[in-house]
Amino acid sequence: MTDSSPSPASSSRPDPFKERLHDCAGRIEETLHALLSGEGEDGNQKSPESLLAAMRHGALNGGKRIRPFLMIETARMLGYEAPGVLQAACALECVHCYSLIHDDLPAMDDDDLRRGKPTVHVEFGEAMAILAGDGLLTLAFEVLAEESIHPDASVRAELVLGLARNAGLKGMVGGQVLDIEAEHRTKTEEEILRLQAMKTGALLRYACEAGATLACASTEDRARVTRFGTIIGLAFQLADDLLDVTATSEQLGKTAGKDLKSEKATLVSLYGIEATRQKLNDLIEEAETLLKLFGDKADILISTAHYIAKRTH
């Protein structure tokens, strides 16, 4: 009788997606560290070390770096791998990290833990946390406007404009306002989807859209990957909402059950866990269909969609 079990060599074969994600996270961490080191600054306009320390605490804490990964991999799928993509991806991650610092503040979600460590306001005080978030937000646009990002100034301008729109009133910040206003009252599915598309989805959608911008992709390809980003954004939020009610604080690295306690508007609260899981599965199927025409080049992005849907923290 033949033994059909996998050999030790085949069972331990590296996962290309996990290797790529790990490598990207390391490169993002290194680049952010250099950006926040304060080295090479003019003595007359040198950043305060106390502020840089708070910014580093909020940005260099071992995150998954999904948003920059999406930007880099979208550009790669579309045939563009210049060094400026990494810099642009770090600019986006600066905006994401700023949003987390401000989300954790007592006036917002009032969280003491982020990725298993004390939040910035706990470690450095509330005023410094606000300023650290401000510093990361403005640094993002400084980085994105640099000539090293892309040789075409119109591409850089489009990247800056897109980030401003997706991070601002019509995107993440606007979504945060809708989230605050939604507490303690029933919301329709349409209202919840709009809130989540702005608060969480906007930066994830921008990550894919910016990858296409950097690659100077065709109108059709831009539309396709932007729709993919929209789907990923909703999937990410649905997975987050499920984890909030099914995972522990130790698994999440932050306080579990916060949404339920705050009576936040989520699809889980509206339809329950199983219906939300089915919606999540449907989204991943649509994401796969969208990228089919790119063939093997889309494998990493499709794996990213599955990773987002099935993650445990």
General description of the model:
By secondary structure, the protein is mostly helical. It has a single domain (16-35, 47-310), classed as Farnesyl Diphosphate Synthase. The protein contains 17 helices and two strands. It has helices spanning 8-11, 16-35, 49-59, 66-77, 84-103, 120-124, 126-144, 153-167, 172-182, 189-199, 201-214, 219-246, 249-252, 258-262, 267-271, 273-291, 299-310; strands spanning 113-114, 117-118. Strands 1-2 form a two-stranded antiparallel ribbon. The longest helix has 28 residues, at 219-246. The chain is globular and about 55 Å long.
Main-sheet strand order equals 1-2
Computed Rg: 20 Å
Structural class: mainly alpha
Order of helices and strands: HHHHHEEHHHHHHHHHHHH
What's the layout of helices and strands?
Blueprint: H1 8-11, H2 16-35, H3 49-59, H4 66-77, H5 84-103, E1 113-114, E2 117-118, H6 120-124, H7 126-144, H8 153-167, H9 172-182, H10 189-199, H11 201-214, H12 219-246, H13 249-252, H14 258-262, H15 267-271, H16 273-291, H17 299-310
Antiparallel strand pairs: 1-2
